[in-house]
């Protein structure tokens, strides 16, 4: 097992929320989102804060660099998911994205971008957020799942993924767009692509049955496996338990796959063994965060940039 892969970043950006709560603006099209009537708002916020803290500690113990930022605002309930408003790319490129819900647009923050410029070689920052004024959304690595090795961007159609915006991004960042229709067992569109698939260096987790067109399903399977990746097919139930919402990272002892404890429990023994052939499993306990309809992968914005010497 090698420690470096262009697919698996060595560092992530995380946001620790002080006033977390499931976002009422996003629950209409996010069927993964849940309400908890058993705890007070303060108890939920405090537990979310603790879960982010503990997740970061486990990532750092595995040798992953964590750039942690605090969010003390009460107006940004989904700030714990920074991967939706920016992404970073080899060669020093950063993208800022247009967000679907108005209160999610408040999550963009200049201090994160300034940190990246200070600690890493950033050549340019391309800002697509102006597309919000035209009603176009493209929510970062929630909307798109990148194969950094083959330069492919996979995206399921939804309110959060506009094809015009995606074509523009892919032209600028040299990705081949592969767009498809995906739905859950009840036929509802899946709001973000990264809840149904994760592309690793030597494997891909994907809920193939969520892809509604059989021909497209076969094409995507072929493209994912063309570099020798092992395809780990996830059931609808496993998708509901966030088993597809994972991120491969490079730690001090090799690659790790970060995902939630709930996702870990949902995988079969055979599926875990398939992953462990190339990455160590790193389950994180984030049940309160998952009330918001996202999980561990959503909590981390991978840093695919070259560090500055001594930074």
TrEMBL record:
Keyword line: Transferase
Region forming the signal peptide: none
GO molecular function annotation: transferase activity
InterPro entries named among the record's database cross-references: Amdntrnsf_FN0238
Name of one Pfam family that matches: DDAH_eukar
PANTHER family assigned: AMIDINOTRANSFERASE
Protein name, UniProt field: Amidinotransferase
Native organism: Gluconobacter wancherniae NBRC 103581
């Amino acid at each position: 097992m090698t420690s470096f892969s262009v697919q698996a970043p060595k560092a992530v950006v995380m946001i620790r929320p002080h006033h977390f709560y499931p976002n009422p603006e996003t629950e209409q099209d996010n069927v993964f989102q849940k309400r908890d009537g058993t705890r007070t708002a303060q108890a939920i916020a405090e537990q979310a804060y603790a879960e982010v803290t503990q997740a970061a500690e486990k990532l750092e113990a595995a040798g992953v660099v964590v750039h942690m930022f605090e969010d003390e605002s009460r107006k940004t309930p989904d700030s714990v998911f920074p991967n939706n408003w920016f992404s970073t790319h080899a060669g020093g490129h950063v993208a800022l994205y247009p967000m679907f819900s108005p209160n999610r647009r408040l999550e963009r923050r200049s201090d994160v971008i300034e940190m990246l410029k200070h600690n890493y070689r950033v050549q340019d920052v391309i800002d697509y957020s102006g597309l919000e004024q035209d009603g176009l959304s493209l929510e970062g690595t929630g909307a798109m799942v990148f194969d950094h090795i083959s330069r492919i961007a996979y995206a399921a159609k939804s309110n959060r993924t506009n094809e015009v915006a995606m074509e523009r991004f892919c032209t600028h960042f040299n990705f081949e767009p592969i767009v498809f229709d995906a739905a859950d067992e009840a036929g509802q569109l899946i709001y973000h692509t990264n809840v149904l698939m994760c592309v690793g260096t030597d494997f891909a987790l994907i809920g193939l049955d969520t892809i509604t067109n059989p021909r497209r399903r076969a094409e995507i399977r072929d493209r994912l496996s063309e570099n020798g990746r092992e395809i780990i097919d996830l059931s609808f139930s496993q998708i509901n338990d966030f088993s597809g919402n994972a991120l491969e990272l490079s730690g001090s002892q090799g690659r790790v796959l970060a995902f939630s404890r709930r996702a870990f429990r949902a995988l079969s023994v055979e599926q875990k063994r398939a992953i462990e052939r190339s990455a160590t499993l790193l389950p994180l306990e984030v049940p309160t965060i998952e009330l918001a309809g996202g999980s561990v992968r959503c909590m981390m914005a991978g840093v695919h940039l070259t560090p500055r010497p001594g930074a």
